[in-house]
Amino acid sequence: MPAPTAASTDVARATAADPRAAGRLPLRLTWILAGLALLVLLSAASLAFGVRGVSLDDILAALSGRTATVSEAAIAARIPRTVLALLVGAALAIAGTAMQAVTRNPLADPGLLGISGGASLAVVIGLAFFGLSAPVSTLFIAMAGAAVAAVFVYAVGSLGGGGATPLKLALAGAATSAALLSLVSAILLPRVDVMAQFRFWQIGGVGGADWGRIALVAPGLVVGALICFATARGMNGLALGDELATGLGINVLRTRLLAGLGSVILCGAATAVAGPIGFVGLVVPHLCRLLFGSDHRWLLPASAIAGSALLVASDVVGRLIARPAEVEVGIVTAVIGAPVFIWIVRRGATGRGMSGSGRAR
């Protein structure tokens, strides 16, 4: 059998995930533009809605840098909150998409695989035993905890015959996540002061955002996203299975390591700045596959847009349903994500995993 040429390899990578990809370019561009337009509208709604009502003139004045009135000052405070929601939503969606590709598991998600739990445990340990509460220290220990949890889950899922199968990874992640949450509770219960400091972060939210926190976390988010985008072609090959991907010239181990590294960086940085927000990385990739297919060169940017839209919309809903108080965005995404999770399971995603087309059938 002749070795595949570079051209045939590129074609295989581009079409393996979705054989109808060639004729879907106009439709995909239309959906991307529609998503960007929706994102602009949701961002405007995030600036407009809150405890204090504002007018369009107030929004335009605040965007130009004016804070002379109370309304303009309120909008100025909402701008970094909106930007943080955009960044965190995109980061979690890209991380979830990459994890599903690496593990070939449609149920892969930073929360379900224990990565968010690892970040949470690391933050609790830093607060309780080392007094680490500064944003810089929280960022690094959360990323370290996420990385350790990811390596542990993959190692446990690789034990036994067959290697790291999708089902074994899902089971290892669920067990690890439960164990990590139990350890978090065990550390917090006898320490009321640490519990009070941790509980707001644990729910997951973007309230209290400021430009300093955004500047701190932005480099990590950018690096993680670039790593994932750089491995998009390799992710398409992973959907075919390791042997066929290797035959097409894809370095399977390197692709898995790089994509996993990118997703861990994204998840750790997002969790450090906003807390463990669940279901974004699970729900968004599935919805985007329905519209864009499974070519990760399209799926990753589409997931970033949809993840940002979901988190901004959830933040706006959380502010409106309990005015003048607010519901944290992590609670809203859980309410949205739980029914979708049940729908995915009912479709038989657990038993079939990521098929050769990269879809959850």
TrEMBL record:
Family matches, as Pfam families: FecCD
Gene3D superfamilies: ABC transporter involved in vitamin B12 uptake, BtuC (1.10.3470.10)
Keywords attached to this entry: Cell membrane, Membrane, Transmembrane, Transmembrane helix, Transport
Membrane topology classification: Multi-pass membrane protein
Predominant place of localization: membrane
Family: Belongs to the binding-protein-dependent transport system permease family. FecCD subfamily.
Database matches in InterPro entries: ABC_BtuC-like, ABC_transptr_permease_BtuC
Highest rank taxon of the organism: Bacteria
Name of the protein: Iron ABC transporter permease
Species of provenance: Leucobacter iarius
Compartments, record wording: Cell membrane
Parts of the chain that traverse the membrane: 29-51, 83-101, 113-132, 139-157, 169-190, 211-232, 257-287, 299-321, 327-345
